[in-house]
Design brief:
- With about 475 residues, the protein is of the alpha/beta class.
- Among the domains are: about 115-280 and about 475-485, Rossmann fold (3-Layer(aba) Sandwich); about 370-430, no CATH class.
- About 30% of the residues lie in helices and about 20% in strands.
- The strands form four sheets. Strands 1-14-13-17-15-16 form a six-stranded mixed beta sheet, sandwiched between helices. A five-stranded parallel beta sheet has the order 12-9-10-11-18. Strands 2-8-7-4 form a four-stranded antiparallel beta sheet, with no helix packed on it.
- β13 (about 285-295) and β14 form a beta hairpin.
- α4 (about 175-190) packs across α5.
- It is globular, with a radius of gyration of 22 Å.
Length: about 475
Amino acid sequence: MDNALEFSKRSSFKREILLEKLYPSKIILPMKMNYGEAAVPTVKVGEKVLIGQCVGAPNPGSFAVPVHSGISGTVTEIKNITLPNRETCKAVVIESDRKRTYHPSVYARNSINVSASKVRGIVKDAGIVGMGGEGIPTIAKINMARRSGVDRVLVNCLQSEPFANCDFMRISESPEYIIMGAVALAGAVGVKRIDVLISDNRKEEIASLQNAMQMSAGDYSGFIFNFKYFKERFPQGYYGLVAKALYGVELKEGETLESRCKAVMFNCSTVYSCWEAIADNMPLASRIISVSGENSEGHNVLVPIGTTVSEILNTVNDNIKTSKRLVWGNCLTGLEISDPDNTPIIKTTSAISVITKKEFNTSSCIRCSRCEDACPMELEPGLLFNLLKRGLKEKAKEEGVHKCIACGCCSYACPAAIDLTGTIASYAHTLNKHKIEQNKLGFTEHSKINIGSVSLLETFEEDEVIETDADASDDIVLPFEGGKLV
């Protein structure tokens, strides 16, 4: 991938002896934190809730995922909320009782020799979605992979944003959960091959994962790990660029890694959450986020999902001034926050970026082609911008506007300070909004969770049963091969 931004001097991050954990005074839990539809609140104002309890569940037949509380306390409000990504939905507000009491359903599983069918049920009921930003329900990707006949699972450890480090912190903190989660997902999909995608300069993280493989080698057998080494370039982890780097193919409109390359990719934090649900009966109720800025040392913190941006910043960085811009996500791909007191961390939020406000004098395009050189999708952002501004949308479609992945590289490189990404990505989003058909992702009218259920991790409904070799064996060996530089 030649067209990419190389951030050779990424923001440095503190090497915490222990990962800092934040226990907020309240959380705001949106019912829609995924690609698809919103869940429905299962609690009422005044109700007591516990850590791990379901507070929102999908309507029968809807393309939604359950929502769980990461704190114990009292439901004080159920209100409508609009997130920075313009998603509007109901949100459950919970005030902490400071007791940190877990629901009885959250306990270490006595036996983790679970079947592939049960893994799929647990992943669905735990509300796990793609935590790298896409937000597609993980059970949907599993089902699509099974129908597509994939032959391997890809574990995406390619976090390359200049101010984000949360995935690498997760690897350092819990490498064994990532390895076992990858094994579980491979078994659920019905494959034996697991490829770990990681930057070649991430020596400590690579060593952590290798050590976790060796430590687990005596407990399981049959699965083969392989490392695929990449250069650290942004936005390397996008699935279309992974397809090009690993398989030498350019995905056409409507094609996926599953259909074209016979591989399914999961973010490493998503993989961790899957094993946490399997081993500990803990649904997706918290995540690590990076808090950083261009002039400050980065910091990682584990927060319950729903924690407000203001409470996080007040805890980890007390010198935020009004002259700073707050970005929900990374500095290149995130969205500016106007109300940090009412903006929560959701399942797909990987970072909060604190950026100095700067006013740039925008000028006309000088035809320098820097935007074209920076575009990882090999588009002509300057041309697309002009076509859209002139209302020539059909011509923009012909020029491939739908391929835009909103990475922000073109705007970053533009010496005229033109907001190329804002115009191009907004239109591309409208074109791609309904591209993925719901029935292709594995949710049917039978994919439902009963409204009102409290513990969702021990009971589930399986849409279909497909027997695989992985189902029949509980012995898994974890050999790993030498890596391949991409």
